[in-house]
Amino acid sequence: MATNIEFSPAIPLPIVFDVQKRIQELRSYLDPTSLQYQPEQQHTNIKAAIKLYEDGKIDGIQQVHIMEGKVVTREEVFKGSAWAWCEGMFYQYAQKFAYGHGPFGPPYHELRMLLRLTPQRGGDGTVHGIIAMNDTGSGLLSLFDTDMQHLGNFWGYAGWHGPIAIQDATGTVTIYPAVLVQVQLVRDDNSPWSDWIEEFAIVKPVVPGLPRLSGAGIRGSLYLATAPGNSFLAVSVTKGGLTSLL
Question: Averaged over 223-232, what is the pLDDT?
Fold first, then answer.
């Protein structure tokens, strides 16, 4: 076997991030006359992001989380209650229970889940049921603007993260508002079987043919697997729990 093979990267021509353009966008979020104006609770975080870009400490590609003006971990964002912000590029490339494929055919799988705004950030406990396509290439859960209308007082919610850049499988980069939410997987009879799981989500306008995609929170909390000859997606809280489902 040849030992000098060079492997082409998954993205041969990566996105070139325009730092100065992003700084201008961030400054517009602080301008009350701008349509992109962000709540005052986010201003400390936005100013911190601008300084991080100006000092060359962030590049707009690597994901960085900011809370109360300081760089924090993803885990600290979920555990905290203060308003938080994130910079960087995100991607969407597409107990136990086995999920079917719904109307999309055997190669695709759906996940049934309950959705709510995180209580410690002001969520009032209102629950909305959604179905999302299982997508191992998606780093965030995608929601629709129509979903938010079923989640209670979302305008006063402290889990909004501001606009972030999303790159899809075509290489297109689109800006969407981001929000922290919690999901809980349910069985076909709608009875919950998992704990509440923290998810980063983006909110898209609902358009014909566009599915919701699952996020990284579920993959970081549960075991998921498929098997040859079995068209179901097996999901379990333990690795051993997958065996009986495959």
Answer: 64
